[in-house]
């Protein structure tokens, strides 16, 4: 009763309180950054449990990252205690895995299915493209992966894709898509996009399944709603229902919170469309706006508003703060990226010395991961404690992936991508020829690769040389031996140890002279630790709601190898956790970062807040990204990203840029970021880089510096701005391009030539504009493109 929870509503404003206590139809909370959307969502859950008699098993809360899910669970835990433990608080992906495991049979899956991440998908696509005799220079696995992912995010299956294809590229993609799905099915594997799409298809095809979940989840809550894509939106709609079901189940209560200005995943198919769809599909929905920002000073908010207000087609919001004007924003123009990093490090030190901020109060943001290196170097040199979120992630390291591939094969022998990965790793004399013979046999006999491998071991493949056959037989025997350990229920860590021992993987590294191999050994040891912690955390603990029908046991046996692999694949997802995460929620919250400066990309910073924020690399061509220059939709997304960056700051915001920097392998002089110049000058106190203070004279440094950079363009204007790469930039001069050349296109940004054809005015080049996932065939002489 309210008496037990007097403060659930006390520290909320009226609009927030309305949102927390709203009962009945769907609720959409749209509001700017820092206005308490996440607080409303968490508080609403607590309120449902404490005041409305809702059982935790009836709640499904969806967040964008596992980190956010862990934080939310923590926050709810603080409010209502251990009852939060058995609640479904997860990302879309985790939620779908859980649901698909329970419904595996209905969904036509083995319940031990593997989850393929981006790298696994690309490996499989490479195999598919090769087998379909595609020109892999032209259709790179990356392009194919991007195209297939887009289709899945739109819930287009391979049959629809084939019937809708209207050009050569689309037809090829559809063909690859069909074969890729066939192989995934054979391997009993799903890629990340499948997790969502298969769940949607399941719910749409089996009303009784949908009915079960609708009965069960009476409350669905979604944070960061602006970043859900069409497939995810449809999933939510299926779960909630838009009307009373035939057997009388009313739609669940739905509460989504988001901010269209913070939609930063358009490249993954998220569109503001989902807010429009919401209003269309749920016409009776109530919308609540929040206008008070509790996070940032007015100065920081004004800067954020100045930047975002330039985006076209947005609903204007009046966001205000009563935290006072606070400190000015500090602007800094560095000579180089090294100078910028030195400035940042110096300021952090000074803040720490004066007691103004702890290291853990500080975050350094950059646009792309590779920018972290310069900061890391200087932080290490100065002994400044830091951690990088993202970057080369633990679970992406080769040795970690190799070890996990062994475990995956043991858990799911049909996992072809993993099986082929480890076939000759470490080297055991099963070469490419032997692998091809096995693959060929599989294809001819319509067998899985693993079945064909067993045929090879038994000498049933004629065109295999005896030595390869012996080696395959030994390999199969080794897998069987390791498999027995799994069967008899050894701890995951023990199985992993056995893998590293029995395959000779560990000895191979230990005997190597390559210093990198020492690091690899450390990483494997770390992985064993992760596995140990996993086993310990899986040991049965006292259960808050034991015996309750809604507290079901997990779909996978706790502590099992499959459960471990599932945890690992999901952690390795969008989150980019800095270090292996044993799964303990407390390890993933911001509280665990104590004593360290956090370095991360702006994308990763979504939803977080820090007393002190450094926004670095504020240059046109860096942030906004080169690719977005002159491309209206992409520029609008970069602007939203800038808005996200600025609104993470609570008390102090630094914005810096460098006059020269090495980017894309070239020294470049970039003009000031247009976002920087849009911030009203009275909000910024400019400091400069000492050595070249003379170069710009007077105040208003950013403009002066723009001129200095010699781009000859006002930095505030839209349209393509050319950086001045040292090689010089020229317009559309006929040029000779070779495979591997890097080019910059006014519209598509940076690309790599993957094929060329013809000569003279008819010469064409196929160019992979990687990041945007686009492959283009171009007449070299007639496009606004420059060779770098
Ligand atoms: P974002 O758009 O960045 O995700 P948000 O809208 O989710 O932001 P929250 O993170 O929920 O905002 O809240 C921002 C900060 O303001 C948090 O520190 C939160 O605790 C605080 N806050 C929110 N509402 C109130 C309130 N009514 N009183 C005091 N503090 C509040
Ligand atoms: Mg939030």
TrEMBL record:
Name of the top EC class for this enzyme: isomerase
SUPFAM superfamilies: P-loop containing nucleoside triphosphate hydrolases
Region described as Disordered: spans on this chain: 691-729
Highest rank taxon of the organism: Bacteria
Residues binding ATP, per UniProt: 31-38
UniProt keyword Coiled coil present: yes
InterPro entries, A to Z: ATP-dep_DNA_helicase_PcrA, DExx_box_DNA_helicase_dom_sf, DNA_helicase_UvrD-like_C, DNA_helicase_UvrD/REP, P-loop_NTPase, UvrD-like_ATP-bd
GO molecular function, one term: DNA binding
EC annotation from Swiss-Prot or TrEMBL: 5.6.2.4
Gene Ontology BP, a term: response to radiation
Catalytic activity field: ATP + H2O = ADP + phosphate + H(+); Couples ATP hydrolysis with the unwinding of duplex DNA by translocating in the 3'-5' direction
Residue ranges of domain UvrD-like helicase C-terminal in the record: 298-607
Pfam families: PcrA_UvrD_tudor, UvrD-helicase, UvrD_C
Coiled coil: 148-175
Domain UvrD-like helicase ATP-binding, residue spans: 10-297
Recorded GO CC terms: cytosol; DNA helicase complex
The UniProt record lists the keyword Isomerase: yes
Protein keywords: ATP-binding, Coiled coil, DNA-binding, Helicase, Hydrolase, Isomerase, Nucleotide-binding
Family: Belongs to the helicase family. UvrD subfamily.
NCBIfam families (alphabetical): pcrA
PANTHER family listed in its UniProt record: ATP-DEPENDENT DNA HELICASE SRS2, UVRD / RECB / PCRA DNA HELICASE FAMILY MEMBER
Protein name per Swiss-Prot or TrEMBL: ATP-dependent DNA helicase
């Amino acid at each position: 009763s309210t008496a037990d929870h007097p403060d659930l509503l006390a520290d909320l404003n009226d609009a927030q309180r309305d949102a927390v206590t709203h009962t009945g139809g769907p609720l959409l909370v749209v509001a700017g950054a820092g206005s308490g959307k996440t607080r409303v969502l968490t508080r609403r859950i607590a309120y449902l449990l404490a005041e409305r008699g809702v059982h935790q098993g009836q709640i499904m809360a969806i967040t964008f990252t596992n980190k956010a899910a862990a934080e939310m669970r923590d926050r709810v835990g603080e409010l209502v205690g251990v009852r939060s433990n058995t609640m479904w608080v997860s990302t879309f992906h985790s939620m779908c895995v859980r649901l698909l495991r329970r419904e595996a049979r209905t969904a036509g899956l083995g319940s031990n299915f593997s989850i393929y991440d981006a790298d696994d998908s690309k490996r499989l696509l490479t195999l598919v493209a090769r087998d379909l005799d595609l020109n892999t220079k032209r259709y790179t696995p990356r392009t194919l992966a991007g195209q297939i992912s887009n289709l899945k995010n739109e819930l287009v299956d391979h049959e629809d894709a084939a019937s809708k294809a209207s050009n050569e590229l689309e037809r090829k993609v559809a063909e690859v898509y069909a074969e890729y799905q066939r192989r995934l099915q054979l391997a009993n594997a799903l890629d990340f996009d499948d997790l969502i799409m298969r769940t949607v298809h399941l719910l749409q095809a089996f009303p009784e399944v949908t009915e079960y979940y609708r009965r069960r989840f009476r409350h669905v809550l979604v944070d960061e709603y602006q970043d859900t894509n069409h497939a995810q939106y449809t999933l939510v709609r299926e779960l909630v229902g838009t009307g009373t079901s035939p057997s009388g189940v009313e739609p669940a209560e739905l509460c989504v919170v988001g901010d269209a200005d913070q939609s930063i995943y358009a490249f993954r198919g998220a569109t503001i469309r989902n807010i429009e769809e919401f209003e269309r599909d749920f016409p009776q929905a109530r919308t609540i706006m929040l206008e008070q920002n509790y996070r940032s000073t007015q100065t920081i908010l004004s800067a954020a508003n100045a930047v975002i207000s330039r985006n076209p087609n947005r609903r204007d919001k009046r966001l205000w703060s009563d935290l006072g004007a606070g400190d000015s924003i500090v602007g800094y123009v560095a000579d180089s990226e090294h100078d910028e990093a030195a400035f940042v490090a110096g300021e952090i030190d000074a803040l720490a010395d004066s007691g103004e901020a702890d290291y853990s109060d500080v975050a350094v943001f950059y646009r792309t991961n590779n920018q972290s290196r310069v900061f890391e170097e200087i932080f290490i040199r100065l002994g400044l404690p830091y951690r990088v979120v993202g970057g080369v992630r633990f679970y992406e390291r080769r040795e970690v992936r190799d070890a996990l591939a062994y475990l995956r094969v043991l858990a799911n022998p049909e996992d072809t991508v993993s099986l082929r990965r480890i076939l000759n790793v470490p080297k055991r004399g099963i070469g490419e020829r032997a692998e091809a013979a096995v693959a060929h046999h599989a294809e001819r006999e319509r067998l899985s690769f693993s079945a064909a491998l067993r045929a090879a071991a038994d000498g049933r493949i004629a065109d295999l040389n005896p030595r390869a056959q012996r080696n395959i037989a030994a390999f199969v025997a080794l897998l069987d031996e390791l498999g027995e350990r799994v069967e008899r229920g050894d701890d995951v860590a023990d199985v992993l140890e056995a893998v590293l021992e029995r395959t000779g993987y560990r000895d191979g590294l230990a005997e190597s002279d390559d210093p990198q191999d020492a690091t690899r050994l450390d990483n494997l040891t770390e992985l064993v630790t992760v596995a140990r912690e996993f086993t310990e955390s899986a040991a049965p603990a006292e259960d808050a709601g034991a015996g309750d029908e809604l507290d079901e046991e997990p779909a996978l046996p706790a502590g099992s190898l499959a459960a471990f692999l599932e945890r690992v694949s999901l952690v390795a997802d969008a989150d980019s956790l800095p270090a292996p995460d044993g799964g303990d929620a407390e390890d993933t919250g911001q509280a665990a970062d104590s004593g360290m400066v956090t370095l991360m990309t702006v994308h990763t910073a979504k939803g977080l807040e820090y007393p002190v924020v450094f926004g670095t690399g504020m240059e046109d061509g860096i942030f906004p990204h080169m690719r977005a220059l002159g491309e209206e939709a992409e520029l609008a997304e970069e602007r939203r990203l800038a808005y996200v960056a600025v609104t993470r700051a609570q008390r102090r915001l630094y914005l810096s840029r460098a006059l020269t920097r090495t980017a894309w392998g070239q020294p470049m002089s970039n003009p000031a970021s247009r976002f920087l110049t849009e911030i009203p000058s009275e909000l910024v106190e400019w400091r400069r880089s000492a050595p070249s203070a003379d170069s710009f004279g007077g105040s208003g440094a950013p403009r002066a510096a723009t001129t200095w950079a010699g781009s000859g363009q006002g930095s505030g204007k839209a349209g393509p701005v050319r950086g001045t790469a040292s090689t010089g930039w020229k317009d559309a001069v006929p040029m000779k391009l070779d495979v591997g050349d890097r080019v910059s296109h006014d519209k598509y940004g940076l690309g790599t030539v993957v094929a060329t054809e013809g000569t003279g005015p008819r010469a064409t080049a196929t160019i992979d504009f990687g990041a945007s996932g686009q492959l283009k065939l171009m007449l070299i002489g007639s496009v606004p493109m420059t060779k770098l």
